[in-house]
């Protein structure tokens, strides 16, 4: 019992801690890669070192999922945490790394971005600094590959950080090197140990350059919010839902002596679990029978249920919402589980996407020994309405 209480307190602390992180004075940079044989991974570590050399800056190294689950990945790459597309919104800058595949980016990285439509239409990544590095074989088509990656970043309105001639003063010119003005690459199929020391130096410089731009821009206001301040209050939630292909389900019916929501002093109080079509989506315990991806899916569904009830509370018009005041996420986890905040981001990101500035909320995340009807998640929400 004492142990469970301790886990509960730690989970609350971590939940609040991670919220606080977004407001911390530290610049947060994501280094996101796909790598099959580890060449891109080695470059990524040098990029991360460069990022962290810049004052007050933290680098997080993650990978995108493999589109072929049977594919054998390099053992170090396999161990990296897997990023979700939604979490790109949480960083001040992102360095993207991919192998050169037929003078292009890898299909896995491309597939990851094919899921970015909600981020694209909501202009979430606009103005966020990004840079691209790669690992090639002979180097054939390496610059074309970086530029094709740039097409995706430009579509998202990201601020692209190139490398120019940085780091080339100390380049070992006795062997071929992967330097380009667009970003560092490694010639994994060329002579000597790869990445070469020169290629790693270039990558480090690139990481530092990204961190500098990310630090400079992180406290500036998003162009979208500057432009739309006066329009924001008139923005139509129904259009946002349609543009982002978000379908609000039917509100689940209460299964006991209670009501789906109460309203007190313009505040709506709602509690929901991961019901979908009358059944719990991905039931069970996170860290045991439920994977993190399944828990995130259940969290997303739970938040949709919250929106469904909220819509009823607003008389069918979500435009009446003035503010999401607070979200509390309870997760059915094993005692040693600690990544509650990452799971809850599925709910927080969805709320921010749908309600924009009005979606900004305080938050707590808590680990629980069990939850009703074996749901992996329960969300308590408080919204202010007109
Ligand atoms: C399907 C495929 C296509 C490739 N196309 C190219 C290419 O066009 N140019 C090149 O220089 N290397 C090419 N390569 C080699 C990879 O870019 C190289 O092995 C790279 O270092 C792999 O990165 P990784 O170790 O991070 O997986 C290709 C490899 C594969 C598997």
UniProtKB/TrEMBL annotation:
UniProt-listed InterPro entries: Endoribo_LPSP/chorism_mut-like, Flavodoxin/NO_synth, Flavoprotein-like_sf, Flavoprotein_WrbA-like, FMN_Rdtase-like_dom, RutC-like_sf
GO-annotated molecular function: NAD(P)H dehydrogenase (quinone) activity
Top enzyme class: oxidoreductase
Highest taxon, organism lineage: Bacteria
Signal peptide limits: 1-20
PROSITE patterns: FLAVODOXIN_LIKE
Record bears the keyword Ligase: no
Transmembrane segments: none
Listed EC numbers: 1.6.5.2
Segments forming a coiled coil: none
Domain Flavodoxin-like positions: 29-211
Keywords, comma-separated and alphabetical: Oxidoreductase, Signal
Pfam families per the UniProt record, alphabetical: FMN_red (PF03358), YjgF_endoribonc (PF14588)
SUPFAM superfamilies listed in its UniProt record: Flavoproteins, YjgF-like
Sequence similarity: Belongs to the WrbA family.
Protein name: NAD(P)H:quinone oxidoreductase
Gene name, Swiss-Prot/TrEMBL: wrbA
